[in-house]
Amino acid sequence: MKNTFYITTPIYYPNDVPHLGHAYTTIAADMLARWNRLLGKEVFFLTGTDEHGKKIEQTAKKAGKKPKEFIDALIPEFKSAWKKLNISYDKFIRTTDKEHEKVVQEVLQKVYDNGDIYKGKYEGYYCTGCEAYYTEKDVLNLKCPIHNRPLEFLKEESYFFKLSKYQKFLLELYKKNPNFISPKNRATEVINRVKEDLKDFSISRTSFEWGIPLPFDKKHVCYVWFDALLNYYSATREKRREKFWPADLHLIGKDILWFHTVYWPAMLKSAGLELPNKVFAHGWWTVNSEKMGKSAGNAVKIDQLINIAGVDSARYFLLRETSFGDDGDFSQEMLIERNNNELANKLGNLVSRVSTLAEKYGLEKAPAYIETTKFAHQVSEHFEKLEIDKALHCIFTLIDEINEYVQKTQPWKTGDKKVLYEIVSAIKDATILLSPFLPETAEKIAKTFNFKLAWEAFEQPLKVSKIKKSEILFRKIE
Ligand code: MSP
Questions:
Q1: Nearest residue CA, atom 2 of ligand 1?
Q2: Cys bridge to 5: 41, 341, 378, 452, which one at CB 3.0-4.6 A?
Q3: Count of CB atoms within 10 A of residue 394's CB?
Q4: Helix or strand or coil: residue 157?
Q5: For residue 1, what pLDDT is reported?
Q6: Phi and psi at residue 264, in whole multiples of 5°?
Q7: What is the 18 CA–ligand 1 centroid distance (Å)?
């Protein structure tokens, strides 16, 4: 088994503060990074910001600032949001980092030398919100389907990347690696579009300045997506991180699947670089069925999200509520309901009751009664298939089973130390499985019952120790 795991989030546009949509991908990636660390793998978890391009240039201009000055003020907002949400990233890359800019130029030169870049004229439609090209065929009324704003018509000299040359290569890639694009239903859309027609795409612009200059023609700046995708590679160019390349998993939203499964592998192939193992696209969070986002004006801010019921409740809700891959409608009521019924009632009460009893009566070693290994197997299988919500469901089935055992054995009446030991042992195992989802809560439980949050602790019997009643883990919200 490969002992490293490299996972990425998209790098976000710092044209505003992050919101729940960005948090979702980042929390899911964090959870997967933590799961892989738990399994003992050496993990590289990358996130960051996508800082060039017209969108950033325009937004900065509106704010009366230079692009770099404008972005620099927003980066702390991303970093502090990720800190609040307990995101355990290993590197935060910015596309204005000098090392990244150098790698982009190096790759551009290589692709150019391979004969895959030529000069032409771009004539067509563009959405600055998406930083993407559209054709009349893609859109209704020449409006961007995501931002619902009129598209811009561009006509300028530009360099093109010979994407059309890679049609056969891409189709073979999808065929040989059926999981390269996940989930499957999304793969079909991409494959059909690739089969239909694959046009070369413009990789440079002259009508604005905020970008990386092409090494072979400094009048042009690099198209922001060509620059941005390469972050995943440039982040591994440090000596100690070279071993992580290529990525095991690019986690993204469905809106940017085309870039990651068509442009990206073709660019890598042209540059003679290895391809990532998998791209997984999750769905959108909507509010009343409309995509949540800055432009729709319905975005839930990070502090708002955390203030509803705390960080772990927010993480739990986002990963439990929808089937990973599908869209989900966000509602504060549902988050509260899950916090109260699942986290507070099932998990919180269990830990509070059992720790109170363990403080009073103590524990005495006994063979494990509740069979937790089968749950670990099921949870691992769900992780393999990225069925995150199902993994959580499975862990809560174990928690239900522990609660039933408590009801059945009534240790508050008997004061049976052995029964209490069996229950705490099962709580230990459930907590270890839960730790990637609820890192803060898992730490509190582990501290209460004195065990380590590690795979070895799952396999080993619990040490008997003096227990003190736990603090309240989840408050019920009216
Ligand atoms: N900068 C590009 C990505 C470049 S990656 C090489 C970009 N940035 S973005 O700021 O617009 O963020 C896009 C990502 O944020 C989406 O792919 C998705 O992961 C996440 N989301 C933004 N809004 C979202 C929802 N409403 N729901 C779920 N995820 C969403 O595109």
A1: 12
A2: 41
A3: 20
A4: strand
A5: 65
A6: -60, -55
A7: 10
Residue 130 among the catalytic residues: yes
DSSP 197: -
Which helix (DSSP H) or strand (DSSP E) does residue 291 occupy? Answer: strand 290-291
Number of neighbours of residue 336 by Cβ within 10 angstroms? 17
Give the alpha-carbon dihedral of 229, 232, 236, 238, to 10 degrees: 60
The full 3-state SS of 91-136, as one line of letters, equals: EEEECCCHHHHHHHHHHHHHHHHCCCEEEEEEEEEEECCCCEEECC
Q: Which two tokens stand for residue 345?
A: 């009632």
Is the Cβ atom of 276 under 6 angstroms away from ligand 1?
Answer: no
Q: According to the model, what pLDDT value does residue 268 have?
A: 98
* Distance between Cα 254 and ligand 1 center (Å): 9
- pLDDT at residue 280, as a whole number: 98
Write out the DSSP string of 6-55.
Answer: EEE-PPBPTTS--BHHHHHHHHHHHHHHHHHHHTT-EEEEEEEE---SHH
CA of 253 to the centre of ligand 1 (A): 6
- Region class of 310: left (phi > 0), else alpha (psi between -120 and 50), else beta: left
